[in-house]
DNA sequence: TAGTACCG
DNA sequence: GCTG
């Protein structure tokens, strides 16, 4: 363990590689407010299973908040200022989201993180996300901040190439992973989710903060 | 290849 | 049958 009790009881920071850090339990105190704001966002921009360029629907349901949102369809991946399902702008990023992301980035060594996009992923038992890179952003100077809420999941933490065998890291309610700098384009994914109970019911939410533009 | 199916 |  890198810094036991850096944030208080039962929480810890663990470096995953240069530029990347797991902040165990960092978001746990904020989780009730984050989940409440998540409900407000999804009321205006419902979760939906997007289709990949290959034509297959994703098992993970997604929505966004912020000035742009990550979307995929048969034409490819992109950031869009409008929700293609409603034609409306994505809901504004809640202050609770923005502040948590900024604090987590700072603790991990990235000052002044001001995300313009939050991709919200909803996993149900059986959902998974295969190995990929976050590389649709216009520049890679800013880090990625990833917040886990609800059911635990096995995070697949790979390397700079798809051929690197991923580490398997268990992520729990309130955990935050931050990666940037030399780790910014790390391949990552999520193994098939198992069932169970959690503060968010029988599902897992992931909030991924990016500077897309 | 942010996807599934299939083989060994 | 289960995993990779």
Largest sheet: 7 strands, antiparallel
Shape: globular
Radius of gyration, whole Å? 16 Å
Strands side by side in the biggest sheet:
1-2-11-8-13-6-3
Total domains: 1
Which class do the helix and strand fractions yield? Answer: mainly beta
Structural descriptors:
213 residues; mainly beta; Jelly Rolls; seven-stranded antiparallel β-sheet; four-stranded antiparallel β-sheet; 13 strands; DNA-binding
What does this structure look like?
Helix content is 13%, strand content 32%. It is globular, with a radius of gyration of 16 Å. With 213 residues, it is mainly beta. The strands form three sheets. The chain has a seven-stranded antiparallel sheet, covered by helices on one side. Strands 7-12-9-10 form a four-stranded antiparallel sheet, with no helix packed on it. Strands 4-5 form a two-stranded antiparallel ribbon. The chain has a single domain, classed as Sandwich (Jelly Rolls), CATH 2.60.120. The chain binds two DNA strands through residues 50-60, 62, 70, 72, 77, 129-134, 162, 187, 189.
């Amino acid at each position: 363990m890198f810094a036991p009790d850096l944030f208080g009881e039962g929480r810890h920071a663990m470096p995953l590689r240069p530029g990347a850090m797991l902040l165990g339990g960092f978001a746990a105190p904020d989780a009730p407010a984050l989940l409440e704001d998540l409900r407000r966002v999804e009321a205006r921009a419902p979760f939906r299973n997007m289709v990949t360029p290959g034509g297959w629907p994703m098992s993970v349901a997604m929505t966004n908040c912020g000035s742009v949102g990550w979307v995929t369809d048969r034409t490819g991946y992109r950031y869009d200022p409008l929700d293609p399902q409603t034609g409306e702008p994505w809901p504004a990023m809640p202050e609770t989201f923005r502040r948590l992301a900024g604090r987590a980035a700072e603790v991990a060594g990235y000052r002044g993180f001001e995300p313009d996009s939050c991709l919200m992923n909803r996993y149900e038992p059986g959902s998974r996300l295969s190995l990929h890179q976050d590389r649709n952003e216009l520049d890679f100077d800013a880090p990625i901040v990833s917040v886990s809420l609800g059911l635990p999941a096995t995070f697949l933490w790979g390397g700079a190439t798809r051929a690197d065998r991923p580490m398997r890291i268990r992520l729990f309610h309130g955990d935050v992973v931050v990666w940037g700098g030399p780790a910014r384009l790390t391949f990552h994914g999520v193994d098939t989710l198992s069932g169970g109970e959690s503060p968010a019911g029988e599902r897992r939410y992931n909030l991924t903060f990016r500077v897309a533009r």
